[in-house]
Amino acid sequence: MGDKKTRIIAVANEKGGVGKTVTVINLAAALHQEGKTILVVDMDPQFNATRGLGVDVDDEMPTVYDLVKEKDSIKAAETIVPTRWEGLDLIPSHVDLAGAEVELVDEAGRENRLKEALESLSGEYDFILLDTPPSLSLLTVNVLAYAKEVIVPCQTHPYAYAALDELFDTIFAIKENINPDLKITGVVATLFDVRTRVSHSILEKLKNDDRYADFLFDTVIRVNTTIAESAGVGKPVIFFRQNCYGSFDYASLAEELLTRGSTSDF
Ligand SMILES: Nc1ncnc2c1ncn2[C@@H]1O[C@H](COP(=O)(O)OP(=O)(O)OP(=O)(O)O)[C@@H](O)[C@H]1O
Ligand SMILES: [Mg+2]
C-alpha cells in the first residue's frame, strides 16, 4: 500500500446530462497538470469516461464489472489501465456493467462490493475520481458507499436546480445508513451559457439558496464546444487545447479543489 493520502471523490447527480463525465475527465486532467496522480473509475455502463480518456475497451480487458461481480478472483490492480498521460490511470467500464445491477440483487453486502474491491488502492494515488450513471442505481450506491467526498455538478437549468434538493436527501440518506464518512465537497455550476438569462438566473439562485450557498464552488463551468470536440477524440480538453474556456474553467476548479477540503457536515 502506498503512503499518499488519497482523496476519494464521487462525481454524482441522478439527473442525466449535467456534466458528470465531462467533470470527471477534465478535473482529472487538470489535477494531472498540477502534478497529482489520479485514478479514474468509470462506474457508468455508458463508458463515456473510458472513451473520453482515449481508452478502447475490448472484450478481453478486465473492467470494473469484473471487480464488482467477481471480486474474489480478480484484484483491483489487474483492472487498472494506463492512459496516454503518465500518472493518470483508469479502471474502465463496459456495457455489461448494466447487468451487474441485476446479478447482485440477491447478494448480501452488495452495496459494498466496490469498496471492498478498491480498498487496496488507498495510498496509491493522490485522487481517485469516480464517474456515476444518471440514476440512483446499485452502481451509484456502491460508489457513494466507497467515496469520502462528493462533487455535484449542477447544470444551470431550472430542472437541474429543482432536482438538487432530492439529490442532497439521497446523499444524506447514504451517509446515515451506509457511509458515515461521506461529505459533500462542493456543487459546481455547469453548462453555464453567459448569453442566456436562464443560466444567470439559476446561478443567482444557487448563490442565494441557504441549502447550497456554502457548497458552491466559485468556479463556474461555461459552455464550451471545445469540450465536446475533445471528448470526441478521446482527450480531456486541457490536453487538446490549452487556450479555451473549458481548459481555464477546469484548471480553476482543480485549484479550488486542492485548497478546499471537504465542506462541513450537512
Ligand atoms: N461545459 C460544457 N460545454 C459544452 N458541452 C458540454 C459541457 N459539459 C458537458 N457538455 C456536453 O453535454 C453533454 C452531457 O455532458 P456529460 O456527458 O458530462 O453529462 P453526464 O452528467 O455525465 O451525462 P449522463 O448522465 O448521461 O452520464 C455531453 O454531450 C457533453 O459533451
Ligand atoms: Mg456521464
The end-to-end span amounts to: 32 Å
Content of β-strand: 15-25%
CATH superfamily: P-loop containing nucleotide triphosphate hydrolases
Coarse morphology: globular
Number of helical stretches of at least 4 residues: 11
Structural class assignment = alpha/beta
Beta strands, count: 8
Largest sheet: 8 strands, mixed
- Give the distinct bound molecules: adenosine-5'-triphosphate, magnesium ion
The pLDDT mean sits at 93
Number of domains: 1
Radius of gyration: 17 Å
Brief write-up:
With 266 residues, the protein is α/β, with parallel strands linked by helices. It contains eleven helices and eight strands.
Task: Please give a structural write-up.
This protein is α/β, with parallel strands linked by helices and 266 residues long. The chain has a single domain, classed as 3-Layer(aba) Sandwich (Rossmann fold). The chain is 40% helix and 17% strand. It contains eleven helices and eight strands. The chain has an eight-stranded mixed sheet with strand order 3-4-2-5-1-6-7-8, with helices on both faces. Strand 7, helix 9 (197-208) and strand 8 (216-222) form a beta-alpha-beta unit. Helix 1 crosses helix 11 (245-259). The longest helix is centred in the middle third of the chain and has 20 residues, at 158-177. The radius of gyration is 17 Å and the shape is globular. It starts with 6 loop residues before the first strand and ends in a 7-residue tail after the last helix. Bound molecules: adenosine-5'-triphosphate and magnesium ion.
